[in-house]
Design goal:
This protein has 245 residues and is an alpha/beta fold. The chain contains 11 helices and 5 strands; from the N terminus they run αααααβαβααβαβααβ. α7 crosses α8, α8 crosses α9 and α9 runs parallel beside α11. It starts with a helix and ends in a 14-residue tail after the last strand.
Length: 245
């Protein structure tokens, strides 16, 4: 009865991991060999693990990544110019804590979106808030936000996100209004958070699709400064069966 009361109190205090661990461990005889300090330490470890897993689940849900990708699943065998050393650097937390950007370019089907989502997954594992948008959808969201008066709120939401992933950037030239909105987003994030862009266009062609030269200069300056550039090549990976990209 006392144990059940203890479990109920732990759940009431939202110590769900500790409550589950206590319930499981008191039923095993081997825990009788543990000291009070060791037993309590195990319960604390279980609570920490439970909270870390719950946080990761929340971050992944909010990120809405396009693909359930992970860096461990990246395929290096397909010839596409993917540098292992660069991905090794990106597998660490440093680029996130120093607010660097990642620009991924290459033809369709070479795994740009997969790689971007894998980096987003890694960011969530490290505890960073992440948001994924296909760039055309982001423009639609901005247009809708202007229509209902929530534009400032939408900009603030993007600014507070540690990692913003913009997939399929610059499929078509941007209008003057769209370029100004993109500059506003990048300006809010510059030096305080990270951005990943994927595009079929090489970076040297981005300037000409961004419209007015002054705005294009400002956008490229914020994107290219202190950024990782990954230029993928080769045939589409969709042409062959594979479980990873």
């Amino acid at each position: 009865m006392l144990n059940q009361q203890t479990i109920a109190k732990l759940n009431a205090m939202r110590l769900y991991g500790m409550a589950r661990a206590f319930s499981e461990r008191i039923a095993t005889a081997k825990n009788a060999e543990l000291s009070h300090e060791e037993f309590f330490g195990l319960l604390v470890d279980e609570e920490k693990t439970h909270r870390d897993n719950a946080k990761l689940a929340r971050l992944l849900t909010k990120a809405r990544l396009r693909q359930p990708a992970a860096l461990e699943d990246v395929d290096y065998k397909h010839p596409r110019g993917l540098d292992k050393q660069t991905l090794l650097e990106l597998s660490r937390e440093h680029w996130l804590s120093t607010h660097q950007s990642v620009l991924i370019t290459g033809p369709t089907g070479v795994g740009k979106s997969f790689l971007a989502c894998a980096l987003g997954n890694q960011a969530c594992r490290s505890g960073y808030s992440t948001a994924y948008f296909r760039f055309p959808r982001l423009l639609e969201c901005l247009l809708a936000a202007k229509g209902d008066g929530s534009q400032i709120k939408f900009f603030m939401r993007l600014a507070k996100t540690s990692l913003l992933i913009l997939d399929d950037f610059a499929l078509t030239p941007l209008s003057s209004s769209e370029a100004k909105d993109l500059l506003e987003i990048l300006e809010d994030r510059y030096g305080t958070s990270c951005t990943i862009l994927t595009s079929q266009l090489p970076t040297k062609q981005w300037h000409q699709v961004l419209g007015e030269p002054t705005i294009a200069d400002a956008i490229c300056d914020r994107l290219f400064h202190n950024a990782f550039k990954i230029e993928l090549k080769g045939d589409s990976m969709r042409k062959r069966p594979s479980t990873s990209r």
